[in-house]
Amino acid sequence: MQTSIQYQALALFSGGLDSILATKVIQQQGISVLGIHFVSPFFGEPQSIEHWQKIYTIPIIAYDIGKEYVEMLRARPEHGFGKVLNPCIDCKVLMFTKAKQLMADYGAQFLISGTVVGQRPMSQRRDAINIVDRDADIRQIVLSPLSALRLKPTPMEENGLVDRSKLLGLWGRGRKAQLQMAKDLGMTEIPTPAGGCRLADKEAAARYFPLFQYHADPQAEDFELSNIGRQYWKKRSWLSIGRDQHDNNLLETFHKDSDYCFRLASFPGPIGLGRPLPDVPWSEIRIEEAASLVASFSPKAKKSLRSVDVIVGHNGTKKAISVLPDRGQENGWFPPEWAQTEEWKKAWVRK
Ligand code: SF4
Fold first, then answer.
1. Which ligand 1 atom sits nearest the alpha carbon of residue 88?
2. In the 3-class helix/strand/coil scheme, how is 129-157 assigned residue by residue?
3. How many Å lie between the centroid of ligand 1 and the Cα of residue 37?
4. Is the pTM for the entire model greater than 0.85?
5. Phi, psi of 23 (to 5 degrees)
6. Among the atoms of ligand 1, which is closest to the Cα of residue 199?
7. Which H or E run contains 126?
8. Is 343 exposed, middle or buried (0-12, 13-18, 19+ CB in 10 A)?
9. Mean pLDDT by 10 residues, the chain (351 residues)
10. Rounded to the nearest whole angstrom, what is the distance from the C-alpha of residue 88 to the centroid of ligand 1?
11. Rounded distance between C-alpha atoms, residue 174 and residue 168, angstroms
12. What is residue 275's predicted lDDT score, i.e. its pLDDT?
């Protein structure tokens, strides 16, 4: 589908400093660029796009890649994981493949990457860059303006579309040159280098592993749900509990009829959302244990030192059950932890 506004280049725009600078270097040559900000349950800040457009004067769109990303993870990333659950090479291949498909919609002639050769251990080694270029079939159409002088000239430089003399030859982990560039560009907000990928964060990544381990067919929205609040599992039963009003509101939006929704009848407290996995029905005992765990996060219910009523909603019905607030360890509810994830990862990666 061709869109009315056309651009000469599409930039992979993560919101990190390198992606901003790479886009600006090309924009400064008078080339029109559209930033593509990929979003999935594991990364992406679509809520920041409006702000970025204003402060960096770059047109940006969000593109949801969650479904394809989950499929890639479930198929076990061909090039393995980094230190945590981050499949950086396969991730880049997927993003560039999608960006390449979008080029026709915008009339774009090439792609811009914020890659700085040698900066990151996994995805920005020279051999890793070659794998990405080969697997995504972008060798002839991708330009990395920040490291271009350390790479062979691309067709865009050879045919004069891009002026190679105005590109850079950055290399390695240092950030001094980028910070100076940001200063020269008058940037008032400089993003931190940490990035926002939950797959590269042990605590966040641990939330995902039970879905891979226990769920026969996890979808992107299941991974979105596992990002919310406190996560608890008991064997193949999954319960999410809000930590604050923001979490509770999110849980409300994710609530499906087939979920078990737990709310305290007479005390302020969190919402709990039990999502049954396919073919794993919840027994009455499991429902009571979950209600008891949800109630344990209400300080007033706990302080009452008596049974409290929890309203359980499921498939359009509601019923009150009476439970003692209990944190659940004795009942076997546990939050997923990195140590288990690491064990599972070792057994799960493609050999
Ligand atoms: S850190 Fe996350 S978003 Fe970045 S390349 Fe790796 S997997 Fe992809």
1. 6
2. HHHHHHHCCCCCCEECCCCHHHCCCCHHH
3. 13
4. yes
5. -65, -45
6. 2
7. helix 126-135
8. exposed
9. 85 96 97 98 96 96 98 93 93 97 97 89 73 90 96 96 97 91 93 82 95 94 97 95 97 96 96 95 95 95 92 96 84 90 84 61
10. 5
11. 14
12. 97
Report pLDDT for 74.
93
Return the CATH number of 9-197, one of 3.40.50.720, 3.30.1330.40, 3.40.50.1240, 3.40.50.620.
3.40.50.620
Within 6 Å (CB) of ligand 1, which residues are found?
A: 43, 86-88, 91-92, 123, 195, 197, 199-200
- In the chain, which residues fall in CATH 3.40.50.620? 9-197
| SS3 of 9-53 | EEEECCCCHHHHHHHHHHHCCCCCEEEEEEEECCECCHHHHHHHH
Confidence (pLDDT) at 194 = 58
Are 126 and 118 in contact by the 8 Å Cβ rule? The answer is yes
pLDDT at 342: 92
Whether the Cβ atoms of residue 306 and residue 248 lie closer than 8 Å to each other: no
| Residue 314, phi then psi, degrees to nearest 5 | -160, 130
